[in-house]
Amino acid sequence: MPDMSASAHLAMSHLVTLAEFDEAKVTPGVLGFIVFAAMALAVWGLMKSMNRHMNRVDFAEPGSGAAESENAGRPAADAAGKKKQG
User: Fold this and answer.
1) Taking a C-beta distance cutoff of 8 angstroms, is the pair 71, 79 a contact?
2) CA nearest neighbour of 68 among 53, 55, 83
């Protein structure tokens, strides 16, 4: 079996060269700005969509009217006529 310490040493020497950088020259740059702007636009669009969907929700409490649940599948004219007759 080959000696694993030699291959580990070789791998670490390659990683060390990647880790050495000048901290004064590291900036997010244009690509970082573009990614941040795209994420901000996506969040804005999702919030706008969520607001639109939440405005469509009817928050009627269950049990507020037994007659309403009885007439749930009928048109409004039939439901009104049924109330007057019965």
Assistant:
1) yes
2) 83
Q: Cα–Cα–Cα angle for 45, 49, 55, nearest 5°?
A: 150
Phi/psi at 63 (5° precision): 85, 10
pLDDT (tens digit, 9 = 90+) per residue, 25-73? 778 889 999 999 999 999 999 999 999 999 998 888 887 665 555 556 6
67 close to 83: Cβ distance less than 8 angstroms: yes
- Both tokens assigned to 7: 């291959």
Record the tokens describing residue 29, joined without a space. 């740059």
Whole-model pTM over 0.70: no
